[in-house]
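Whiteboard transcription, Tuesday session. T.W. wrote the structure tokens on the left side:
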């Protein structure tokens, strides 16, 4: 029998591990199963390169609960250890067997998937256990060993009668951690952290139905067989090559990742790179809902198929945080407990790679099936528009696949849009004016006026559109965006020709005075315009600059620096001097009748903009009914 002290630099190392090293006690199971996986993968590698002639077989890792004995067992059929190796790897805290293994076999083992075996991860067991045992036998023909420690620096190491290869870690669960003796809790943790580990993990057994024999009698009773309950998928889709997967495989894996997600993903992007870093993964574009915050933290980060976190900030560009899927990389730097990311140059490289890969995939999708891409545009546009604003490298590539749909359901790239609009919508100063609407319903009358002029109106209804058009204008010379209700149409796209007014200058001045007496000055600026006699008599517009700055301020953009978010809404009341109503207002002598006429016309204009509400709407309805008595 051997005894001694674990080689640590402080006496109270275990309380420190329990309290500070690991942010969440439940990850002890992840660490121990990872160690068991390592031991198995190492053996597989050694047999593959001919370093040993032992039979690898079909090993599994078994997790067992002994509720009565208050013990939890983690059993593997991997390398195992000799007594000498136990002394080396277990009794010297933070000495990683994985590091030594990879150094020794660095040329042949770089793709072996080894994670880290019996380093600090093993000691996470003491977060939940009052005593830990290791019963282990090396794959080499050496005696088995039995190590025991009660959480103090004292340990015992004695021979064991274990005859089969591998290690069994036995945790004597502490009184404050009895939840880890519950089957449901252990199943939950295995599913969360070890769902895609590369070695099958057995947790109990389950019944499977035997196939019914062809010659079964009429009174045949269904027969069952007891089989191992393997709770993980050792070969998830992201570990395979894209050429080996079908669309159906990708969809099946999507539902394996998100069992409660019933909608199909829109697009799939398979990541696979081995230089200058290793990274694999699958990203899915889901349908994006209005609540963008609820959509975040759906991408799962793995390291060699070990689940780490669903907070991938820094690795995945922020605009792609609304996607779903998996990223797996051994090169992502984690803190010692594998609980969170550390700052590192590789992280930025990985983020840039993902950005480029997504952009390239989107370009190929629109080139391969434009019609299908257009159908899905509304479900993905907010992600791409956000990417254009937040990621310069993505913005550079976006012209190839970002679409600008019209209110008549035509879809243009920016280059196509410029070409289509140039003949009709270039103003007298040579500037191309892109008319857009934020709502087909709310701005319907303005859209129809523009279409009557032969103009096309694009539909830009995302909450960040004011920021985006500002950027597009700054990067494209002689291009400007104007919301279709920002002014009357002839002023939005000014041509050389001007319409004359049938009112004299004196009559126009008189009309303006009348209107400004009745129309609230604090909200409306009266403008007289010489429009076609068939055009709307009264029209309410909101100046593009003011509205855009207010929207940018409200969404946290550059407009905030001017404090415009708190400004009250201001509108222009555009009055057509060639309309019959303008003439009637001038001709009406009765002040009450004149006031009623102006209010009715103003309310009709407000109604078309969705601005007539509350008491004003009630008064308008009452006045309208009275006029048709």
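and on the right, the sequence the group agreed on:
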């Amino acid at each position: 029998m051997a005894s001694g002290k674990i080689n640590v630099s402080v006496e109270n190392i275990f309380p420190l591990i329990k309290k500070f090293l690991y942010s969440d006690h439940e990850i002890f199971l992840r660490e121990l199963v990872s160690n068991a996986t390592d031991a198995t993968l190492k053996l597989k590698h050694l047999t593959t390169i001919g370093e040993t002639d032992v039979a690898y077989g079909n090993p599994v890792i078994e997790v067992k609960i002994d509720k009565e004995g208050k013990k939890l067992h983690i059993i593997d059929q991997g390398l195992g250890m000799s007594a000498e190796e136990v002394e080396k790897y277990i009794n010297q805290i933070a000495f990683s067997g994985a590091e030594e293994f990879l150094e020794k076999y660095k040329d042949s083992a770089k793709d072996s998937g080894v994670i880290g075996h019996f380093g600090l991860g093993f000691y996470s067991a003491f977060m939940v256990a009052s005593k830990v045992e290791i019963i282990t036998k090396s794959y080499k023909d050496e005696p088995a060993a039995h190590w025991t420690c009660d959480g103090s620096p004292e340990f015992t190491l004695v021979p064991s009668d274990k005859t089969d290869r591998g290690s069994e870690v036995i945790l004597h669960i502490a009184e404050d951690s009895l939840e880890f003796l519950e089957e449901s809790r252990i199943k939950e943790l295995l599913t969360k952290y070890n769902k895609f580990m590369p070695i099958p993990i057995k947790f109990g057994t389950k019944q499977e139905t035997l196939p019914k024999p062809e010659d079964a009698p009429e009174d045949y009773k269904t027969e069952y067989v007891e089989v191992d309950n393997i709770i993980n998928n050792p070969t998830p889709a992201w570990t395979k090559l894209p050429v080996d997967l079908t669309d159906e495989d990708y969809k099946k894996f999507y539902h394996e990742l998100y069992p409660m997600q019933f909608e199909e993903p829109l697009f799939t992007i398979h990541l696979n790179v081995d230089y200058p870093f290793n990274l694999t993964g699958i990203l899915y574009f889901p349908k994006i809902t209005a609540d963008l915050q609820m959509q975040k933290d759906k991408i799962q980060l793995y390291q060699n198929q070990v689940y780490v976190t669903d907070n991938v900030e820094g690795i995945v560009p922020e605009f792609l945080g609304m996607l779903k899927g998996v990223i797996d990389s051994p090169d992502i730097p984690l803190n010692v407990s594998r609980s969170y990311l550390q700052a590192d140059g590789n992280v930025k490289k990985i983020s840039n790679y993902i950005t480029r890969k997504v952009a390239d995939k989107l370009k190929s999708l629109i080139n391969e099936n434009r019609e299908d891409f257009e159908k899905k545009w509304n479900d993905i546009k907010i992600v791409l528009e956000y990417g254009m604003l937040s990621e310069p490298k993505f913005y550079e590539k976006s012209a190839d696949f970002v679409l600008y749909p019209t209110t008549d359901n035509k879809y243009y790239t920016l280059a196509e849009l410029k070409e289509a609009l140039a003949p009709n919508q270039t103003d007298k100063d040579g500037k191309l004016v892109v008319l857009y609407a934020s709502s087909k319903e709310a701005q319907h009358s303005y859209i129809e006026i523009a279409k009557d002029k032969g103009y096309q109106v694009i539909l830009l209804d995302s909450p960040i559109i004011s920021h985006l058009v500002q950027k597009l204008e700054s990067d494209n010379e002689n291009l400007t965006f104007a919301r279709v209700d920002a002014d009357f149409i002839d002023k939005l796209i000014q041509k050389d020709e001007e319409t004359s007014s049938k009112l004299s200058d004196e009559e126009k001045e008189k009309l303006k005075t009348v209107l400004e007496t009745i129309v609230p000055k604090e909200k409306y600026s009266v403008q007289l315009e010489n429009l076609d006699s068939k055009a709307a008599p009264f029209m309410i517009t909101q100046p593009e600059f003011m509205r855009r700055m207010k929207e940018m301020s409200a969404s946290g953009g550059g407009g905030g620096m001017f404090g415009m978010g708190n400004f009250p809404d201001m509108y222009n009341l555009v009055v057509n001097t060639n309309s019959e109503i303008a003439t009637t207002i001038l001709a009406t002598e009765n002040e009450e009748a004149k006031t009623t006429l102006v209010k009715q016309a103003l309310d009709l204009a407000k109604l078309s903009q969705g601005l007539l509400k509350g008491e004003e709407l009630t008064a308008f309805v009452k006045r309208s009914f009275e006029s048709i008595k």
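Someone added at the bottom: Residues 2-204 form a domain with the Heat Shock Protein 90 fold (CATH 3.30.565.10).
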